[in-house]
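HUMAN:
Sorry, I am quite new to this. Are you able to go through these amino acid letters and fold codes? The numbers rather puzzle me.
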Amino acid sequence: MLLPELLNQNIETYGEYEFLYCEDRTYTNLQARQTANHIARLLRHVGVARDDRVMVCMPNNPEVIFSYQGISRAGAIIVPVMFLLHSNEIAFIAENAGVKAIVTSSLVLDKVEQAIQHLSKPPVILAVDVSTRPGIVNLYDPVPESIESNDTQRNGLELHRTNPDEAGIGVFVSGTGSFNESAQGPSEHDTAVILYTSGTTGRPKGVMLTHKNLYSNAHSSAYHSDPERGITLGVLPLAHVYGLTVSNACYITGSSIVVFPKFDTIKVFEAIQKYRVKRFSAVPAMIHAMTMHPDAGKYDLSSLESVGSGSAPLPMALRDGFRAKFGAEVYEGYGLSEAAPVVTAHRRGQPVKPGSVGIPIPGVEIRIVDETGQELPAGEIGELTVRGDNVTPGYFQNPEASRTVLRDSWLYTGDLARVDEDGYLYIVDRKKDLIIRGGFNIYPRDLEELLVRHEAVSEAAVVGVPSPRMGEEVVAYVVAAPGVDLAEQQLLDYCQDHLAKYKTPRKIAIVDALPRNGVGKILKTELRKLAQELKLDVI
């Protein structure tokens, strides 16, 4: 199934209903398709052809979802980009992907214009809320009638006229609405999205995800976790594959989504209360913000049954604190961009094992292998590999990197993990984050779990830094709990009381906040740089 068919099938199955809420705006699923078809025709009008890349770079808003559908309906490829990136990072992605157009908003427009000013082939800019700026195309500009006739003749698409909506759009494409340049339509194996990795370990790589990758993952995720219709919260960045999959799953289940331009704890509480939200997906940083907020008790959050957690490790102490405060379960799962993204998850009605990220979703296989690629028995730690319809065909124009992670139909994740006798997966750590001190393996996550169990610690992150004598030394960064005075020696003594001496951090730095990317993942590369800048005595 192609991405545009998700919305078409949603309308055929469930009829028209209120599909999307954002601040004071509401859209039905039919309005979403009408707007997406208009965007597809507008993209064709500005020169976007099949397989061209179109970047979408703006905060969460309805037009992000409409644009994703519109780009696919134009036969083009979506390039989601986090609007928080620096202009230099946006420029790199635009150049590397060779984007033909960029969809953005006034909040990001200056940054986008700065990013493309030195590109050899500057893309066309389409903005959702700018109409008077020279060289900028408004996303709701009318499309000349000639586009309608030309596309009809070239592709044999059946067009029909509807009542104009609020944007004055009156011509839309029935069916999938894909504007193809040849008689042969797109295949489920064609690239639908190129999603650039965060670049925390170097230059970002463009993960190619096909229509089949995304559809199969959204379908399996939806029915593995909960096929029940309802209203969920779109607090995850839609530019991230986790947020993209959540929105795709809504098409499949006939659910509605409340989209937030940015995560705001109070607005989340208000939305849960207003819409009687039962379930939504988040990242640990959001779960932490909800758990620690002093005003949570002012809202009726009794409808909340569970929250799915992914993208970053969830400390068990945080899971327990959330359950105690809200009476709702936290189902931790595991995924990565190269797997579109969900690999494993907990399921309602099945045991929740603390520390585990659940079992593989339908259609996905996992193995734990050693350095030679041989599968390891249950309980042993090795590298996690994944296989299934959700796995990327590779990185965009980067065959060398593709060969590194894709071997014999298996995706090598770079994560160290183990599987228990019941098939539950436990992520031990990132392979690249493993600390080897004096020949002994130290897993940062074990130490992080210990630190956040201390009553005075709110968050913790552990990294290794070079040491001529020991190879690497252990440095921990912690954020104190609100209103608590915390001393380094206090935590060092605590660690020595609970750990082998070689695992105890040589230095514990108390900081106001941990650096994070757009989805709340802690940037350990930044922490390693900070250790060097502070000239910590860890040798």
In short: Residues 29-45 form the longest helix (17 residues). The chain has a mean pLDDT of 89. The CA atoms of residues 315 and 352 lie 14 Å apart.
